[in-house]
């Protein structure tokens, strides 16, 4: 029996929704989705209000997902212009730099001005509705400005996490044929400089990137960087003399707001394409209810804008709600391991949303660095990105939240746009490790190995049986891959790629990915991507990559490598290969373990049996299951004997 934490009565007394509200609204939302989501859509300013609400088919032969299709709106007008009347002087963004002495407060009026000027800048460079713009920036306010300026023009942004390598950036630029890249001279993390402009220069030498006409460089550190004329332009010079008047371009609700690349089980990263209207309805609504947002809240989500959490819950959801959102450039342990709690005290943060990996890392340093700060402003804590283990949940609750703050463990994905399964803090009792119950309009289902939908207590693959407004609309440039990936395994349903258990109270417990995707520190990585980076090395003949348990990261990366004939697996070569992967993809893909494999376990048809490799990586050599179907069962003994985790 898992522990049940009842709703905090003091919190519930003032909360937006209580338990009976949840029950009533959930029932309404699934029995009459059109009526429900039609009403919710009124929270936005529409240039042309929608009359059609939902037009969806999950049938793979006739797949289409349209919400509010005849409506027109502009996201930047919703996040900025409409706030000016009542919130012009309210702080929209609190920027907290890597250096604790560096912070800035930007009001809605100031942000509006900056976005209009930058939208005019882009317009002068020839950017029009539908163009793709790559954003490769650190966590600085200009990242939000760039996103909102694209939205103002109806240009589609593609934010690429600043930790990705030139090759990864190049792949994303090429796939989206971006016209402009927006970057900075350098990023700053834990006092170290990240050579963003150098990386952009290297990326643009790769084949397939010549769609890029202009590179805009924000001065962050002020270091001298090579500027190639006429391609490269400084942000601050382009902004000089720009008009602060820029009418928002009305776009159809289904017009793409952005593309965000994410890893799948096969091939290169997929460009997850999100809509304008449905996305903003869903992110703003979930943000308001899951965090029980109040006018005077100071809300801090620690995610980078390079990930979907940064899109939905640092920028779009909070700004559409007129909230004050903190943008943090730094890391949890710089200058010291109290940094999160210092920032909470400094800015009087009330709502705090972070990832289990950060909590686990900070737990190792004990309670003193937390207790050194007051944290009295906090009233709610959130978790996102990976399953939170009950020990970390309890510590977050007891030590960080002083047992006062409800915890919302929010399950969702890049593809879902926003939060899907989560407690509502004044309504739903929590259990450490469970994301609890579905949000309004979300219909989860669990299927067994025969694809039969299970009722009641069950465990199996997690599907969503009907659409919601924030859902991914397609894979950019590859609609067939979209259908194949999400709608073919269980026709008529969206397949999440996750496994889940539903308990006797109907609570969901996400058990992790059931495909070849691993989750390293809350970041999603395809094992196939790491494998193709490894085999690109001249000394590697073959490679197989699996996830393995990791105390801090949740999952680590375990690689099995077969060298070409004549090469020996030395410690030097191991280091070289690990550094190679880091350079090819980025530091997040650094293998934790690399084992030499004279042979890999394969079926007679030549398919690598990852199930076996996973068990060896998990140090469970007694649970390999049936290995008699292998072409050469003999290879397994060597791998078991030489395994790196014992
Ligand atoms: C995968 C999605 C959610 C935005 C950030 C990650 C895992 C995410 C939880 C949670 C258990 C979680 C799932 C999911 N995941 N949140 N609260 N509990 N697992 O987005 O990179 O698209 O990764 O992260 O496995 O499929 P993403």
TrEMBL record:
* Alphabetized Gene3D superfamilies for the sequence: 3.30.300.30, N-terminal domain of ligase-like
The AMP-binding enzyme C-terminal domain extends over 529-607
Cite the AMP-dependent synthetase/ligase domain residue spans from the record.
Answer: 80-465
- Binding, Mg(2+): 535, 537, 540
Sequence positions bearing N6-acetyllysine: 607
Q: In its keyword annotation, does this UniProt entry include Ribosomal protein?
A: no
Q: Which GO terms describe its cellular component?
A: cytosol
Q: Where is the Acetyl-coenzyme A synthetase N-terminal domain?
A: 22-79
Cofactor(s) recorded in Swiss-Prot or TrEMBL: Mg(2+)
A GO term for molecular function: AMP binding
Listed binding positions for ATP are 385-387, 409-414, 498, 513, 524
Q: Name one Pfam family in it.
A: ACAS_N
Provide the protein name.
Acetyl-coenzyme A synthetase
- In which organism is this protein found? Rhodanobacter glycinis
